[in-house]
Structures are given as structure tokens and as C-alpha cells.
Amino acid sequence: MTRVSADTRAILRLALPALGALVAQPLFLLIDAAVVGTLGTAPLAGLGVAGTVVATLVGLCIFLAYATTSSVARHVGAGNRAAAISAGIDGLGLALLIGIVAGIGLFIAAPPLVDALGASPEAATYAVTYLRIMAIASPAMLGVLAAVGVLRGLQDTRTTLLVTLLQVGVNTVLVLVFVLVFDWGVAGSAVGTAIAEAVGLIAYGALLMRLAHREGVRIHPHLLGVWASARTGFPLFIRTIALRAVFLIAVAAAARMGDATLAAYHVTSTVWFTLALALDALAIAGQALLGKVLGAADRDAARALTHLLVRMSIVLGFILTALIFIVRPWVPQLFTQDAEVAALISSALILVAIQQPLAGAVFAYDGILIGAGDTKWLAFAQTAVLIAFVPAIWLVVAMGWGIAGLWWSIAWMLLTRGVLLVWRARGTAWQVTGPVRN
Question: What is the pTM of this model?
Fold first, then answer.
């Protein structure tokens, strides 16, 4: 078997289960929405507001998974599985600590957060109820993120898929029982989801304890290890804030262009983020594999994996482009009966489609550098991209370029991000070898 075919198999072995887990995760909110929707408009609106806050918290804390993946994978590559598990336990300890602090903050700040998002008084009551229950589950939610990173670093995405499916199953049953049988309303939905998060943490915790016992590793976090995890994760936190700011600014810009443009942007951005799950699955494989080969001090393998992963991601991008063009005639009708909004969606999907190969390359390089632990540079690069994006989106609004201008500004963001990532990847500064990146 050639190196390319072996690497391709390794990428797919990690990427396919990772994609399954990524697709399964949004089912939590979809299941909640489907069940709560039977209670009326106000409860569903309240859930929508609360779900946005919870999704934002999880999105901002995704660095817990990414940083843990890199550090664990490096130790695996260096042949020290015990150190890998120890690093994973420290990462989990950091996640639980952040989860406790975030949970307290979310519980206290729930009413002003809901008000800031413009919920009606009736919907706000439901939103605050949901958020305060989920605040109690924050340590479990964030702990699951870190545990997923540990398993990815150990080159095991199959287990993360199985645990995610377990969580979805538990969530489905409990939400149906608590809401429709016990008549607990929105609170029942939140309790069911919170228990499902706790089940995930227990499952991962039991697995990590078994692995720790097998390797003779302590089962409690070490203070210095937790601090090291925080130091590694903070730049990724900055990167994530800068990245999410781009899309928040785009939404704000769309809102200033009228309801039709805002509605069309919401639909097309939903399509964009759904397709991004497939590209992200390959990037996750890159994180795990790059950390491993650099931990083993194999720069040749790192370069080979980089080139292969980028090629695979670009090919997938072209496949997604073709898919969008195939389904484009039917997509607008799935979301609206308004002729103006439908026309805007149809035209914007063309721009979404042609971006996919570029997005594939960007996702791949991003995953590679995350896997390499090049977090400080990634934070700098994404901040620079945000700075370049702001005048572009301002010009779109000022000139009244509408939905097309919005998506051209997203393309500009991808292009500037891609140029910076390619420039970095072409050098060698990111190829730091060994079990730990200083």
C-alpha cells in the first residue's frame, strides 16, 4: 500500500464518523424545536432565543475540543499514550472549570441576555427558564467538548459518533416524555437535553477512567496541566471570537438591507453552514493526524498529509458545488412562498456554490495548523481577516449591493483567510515536532 492510499484511508477512517457526529449534534435543537413547537408560538420563540445563546456558548468554547485534540495527538505520535491520556484529563478538567463559571454567569445573566435578543415578554419567560436549566448543564456540555477532543487525539472518532447517537436517543425519549406526557413544557425540553449532556459526560468519563487505569495514569486533573491546556486554548478562543464576529456582522448588515434580504441570507447561510459540516469533518481528521505525525517528529509525513488533505477538501468542495446547483431549483420553495425572497435565495445560492472549493482549502489548512498547535498564529491571522472584512461589508451596505454583495464579502473573507493560511503552511515554522509545542 502506498503512503497516499494509506493516508487517504486514515483520513476517511477519522472523517466519516466525525461527520456523523457533527450531523447528529444539531439534532438536539431540532428535536427540542419539533416537540416544543406543539406547545405554541411563544414557547417555540423562547426556545429559539435560548437555543441561540446556548449554541453561541458552545461555539465559543469549541477550542476545548481543538486544543485537546492537538495536545493528545502529539503525545500519541511520540509513543507516550499515558501522557496523552493525562493531557486529555487535564483538558477535561479545564472544560469542567470553565463550565462551572459559564454556568453561573449564564444563570445570572439569562434575563438581560434574552432581553438583548429582543424576545417578547411572553417568549422571554420561556427562554429564561430554558437557559437557567441549561446553565446547570454547562459543565457537562463543555466537558463533552473536551472529551471529544481527547478521543479525536487518540485517533478514535467512532466512539464519539456512538456517544453522540446515545445522547440523541436519550434526548429524544426524555423530551417526548417530559413535554408531552408529564406536561413540563419548555422546562421539560431543557431537562431532557441537560440529562442527555450528562449522559454523554458520564460515558466519556467512564471511558477515560478505564483508559487511565489501563495506562496507570492519575484520574484527576493536575493544576499545571490544566493551566497548560488553558494557555494552549486561549489563542483558539480568540480565533473563534474573530471568526464568529464575521458572521454576526454579516447578519447585522443583512438586517439593515430589509426583511427580504435578511430572510434570504438566513436561508443561504444555513445551507453554507450545513455544507461546512462535511468540510469540517476532513479538517478534524487533519487535526488528529497532523498532531500525531508531528509528535512522531515526521515532517515528511506532515507535508504529505497536508497536500493530500487539501486536495481531498478541494475535491469535496467541487462535489458540494455540483450538489448545490442540482438542488438549487427546489431549495427556495422549501423555505418560503414569497417570490422576492425565493428569487434572492436562488441567486445567492450560485455564490454559495462557487465558494465551496475555496472553503474546502481554507478548512483544510485551518485544521492542519490547529493540529500542529500553531494557535497563536491562527489567532493573529483570523483577527487580521476580521479587520479586512469590516471595510468590505461596510462598502456592501453603503453601496446597497444586497444579498450578492453579502456573499461576495464572505468570499473576500475566505480569500484573505486562505492567503494567510497558505502562506503560513508553505513555511516550516508551524512544523514544530515532539510531544509538546512550546
Answer: 0.91
